[in-house]
Write a structure and sequence with these properties.
CATH architecture: 3-Layer(aba) Sandwich
Order of helices and strands: EHEHEHHEHEHH
CATH topology: Rossmann fold
Number of strands: 5
Strand order of the largest sheet: 3-2-1-4-5
Helix content: 25-40%
Structural class: alpha/beta
Radius of gyration: 17 Å
Number of domains: 1
Distance between the termini: 42 Å
Largest sheet: 5 strands, parallel
Number of helices: 7
Strand content: 5-15%
CATH class: Alpha Beta
């Protein structure tokens, strides 16, 4: 971790290394903010590849203030195909409205809590996270009402003088709109990683790959990362 001058305006970005968090970072950068990047390890299958994306995106934006949270004990909890080797990552089903096997129990609450703690310690004014409501049909911790509730938790559980906003700049966008926004802002989309299964070439078959591929296709933009297969999800 690198320290930050607490006297300057600052936003902590929860940066997974994926498409949505990268465009969230690009949005904050375009607004002229100073940035601090936070990344979480929670025993996910593609942990090493996501970590690489995190650092490459941070290098792109010349962000020195970086922290990595170790939540690897999530893998001991089980309950998610991203952390439990006995569960298979389900194939893509963009019509599914149930909680998918890839849901990691209460992950966003833990990540946000750690980000807010760091933000309060370094004097940051906001925590930005790339949650998307399009994903919320299956992910309860991506819903706007979850973030509204968490804002109340932050207000109640921090020092009286602390003001840390919880920002979700892409929450109302479709994946296609996020891709277009990223292109508009010059975000390094080629550095991002979204696949739940693979670390060398994206599988193209998991939910995350499917949402991403459909978003790029609908935006009329070629996805710059390599895939084993590229189904047409439009």
């Amino acid at each position: 971790m690198t320290s930050v001058n607490a006297n300057r305006s600052l936003t902590v970005v929860a940066l997974s290394g994926g498409l949505d968090s990268c465009v969230t970072a690009a949005t904050a950068a375009a607004e002229g903010r100073r940035l601090a990047f936070a990344h979480a390890h929670y025993g996910q299958l593609t942990e090493a590849r996501e970590r690489r994306a995190f650092h490459e995106i941070a290098d792109h934006y010349d962000v020195a203030a970086r922290i990595e949270f170790d939540f690897r004990r999530f893998a001991e909890f089980g309950g998610s195909s991203l952390t439990d080797s006995s569960m298979d990552v389900s194939p893509a089903d963009l019509t599914n409205r149930d909680v998918p096997t890839s849901y990691v129990p209460f992950r966003n609450a833990n990540i946000l809590a750690a980000c807010v703690a760091w933000a309060e310690a370094i004097g940051a004014e906001a925590v930005a996270i790339g949650a998307v409501y399009e994903d919320a049909s299956g992910y309860p911790d991506c819903r706007p009402e979850f973030f509204d509730a968490f804002r109340r938790v932050v207000e109640t559980g921090t020092k009286p003088e602390t003001r840390v906003a919880i920002e979700t700049p892409v929450i109302g966008m479709s994946k296609a709109e996020i891709v277009r926004k990223g292109v508009e802002l010059g975000a390094p989309l080629e550095l991002t990683w979204s696949c739940y299964r693979n670390e060398e070439r994206a599988c193209g078959l998991c939910d995350s790959c499917a949402y991403r591929l459909r978003g790029f296709a609908e935006a009329g933009v070629e996805d710059p990362i390599p895939y084993d297969v590229r189904p047409n999800y439009r």
